[in-house]
Specification:
This protein has 236 residues and is of the alpha+beta class. The protein is 40% helix and 19% strand. α5 links the parallel β6 and β7. The N and C termini lie far apart (41 Å).
Length: 236
């Protein structure tokens, strides 16, 4: 059994082959609810309630929309251009908050398990976070990530996709105290992207969109692979 310390809570079984990503995220969240301070638990809930009122999903691209083209640097300094990448294959594009985020670490480790299956289904897996490149490389090493991680350091692309929200001051203060957000976001730690996911076909059309304003929920790789396999059948 592999044990990982995430958010200062020791978890075994996170990488169990028979568990879904949802079950792993739920397991961590249950531990947070039990072991986290009442102040932190309340701050998370208050922040989510405030975000629900924004109805951000109304402005986020959806299935059938054209993906917004962009160019970003990978955490290793290479150039990733979405238009160029789509010439080669469909792209699975997902946002995460950064390597400090416990839920993101669970997602990244889980996605790494399914990376080969996503490649076999014809897709290119690409993660985007607003953290600086050096911290992105730490994240990459921690989870032995071998898919692309992009650094959107000022949330420029996330803003084009209408994903950026402002964290409530109380929660921001608690997160900053615990995780040292200045190390990840030198200039914009109060702004985070929603953790959405898209499958974009080679015409640039979004064929799958996972949109939820609750950062504790993430897209299942099985759903992504199903969409990619359907795209493969269309191309035959």
């Amino acid at each position: 059994m592999k044990y990982i310390v995430i958010g200062f809570i020791l978890i075994g079984k996170l990488l169990g082959a028979d568990s879904t990503l949802k079950s792993q995220l739920d397991e961590y969240n249950a531990l947070f609810q039990k072991q986290g301070s009442s102040e932190a638990v309340r701050a998370v809930e208050d922040d989510l309630k405030e975000r629900h009122t924004l109805k951000m999903e109304q402005n986020i691209p959806k299935v059938g929309d054209k993906a917004i083209e962009f160019t970003l640097k990978t955490i290793n300094g290479e150039t990733f251009d979405l238009k160029d990448a789509l010439r080669q294959s469909p792209v699975v594009l997902f946002w995460y908050r950064g390597g400090w985020c416990p839920y993101c670490n669970i997602q990244l480790a889980y996605y790494q398990q399914y990376h080969q299956a996503i490649k076999n289904a014809g897709g290119r897996l690409v993660g985007i976070a607003p953290e600086i490149q050096s911290m992105g490389r730490v994240t990459q090493q921690d989870h032995a990530i071998d898919f692309d991680l992009l650094s959107d350091t000022d949330n420029a692309v996330a803003k084009q996709y209408h994903l950026v929200y402002t964290v409530q001051p109380k929660l921001l203060s608690l997160m900053d105290e615990r995780f040292g957000l200045d190390d990840y976001y030198p200039s914009h730690k109060q702004e985070l992207p929603l953790t959405v996911a898209f499958v974009i076909d080679q015409s640039g059309t979004i064929r799958y969109a996972y949109i939820d304003d609750d950062f504790r929920k993430r897209s299942e790789p099985a759903e992504i692979i199903e969409v990619l396999n359907a795209l493969k059948k269309e191309r035959r």
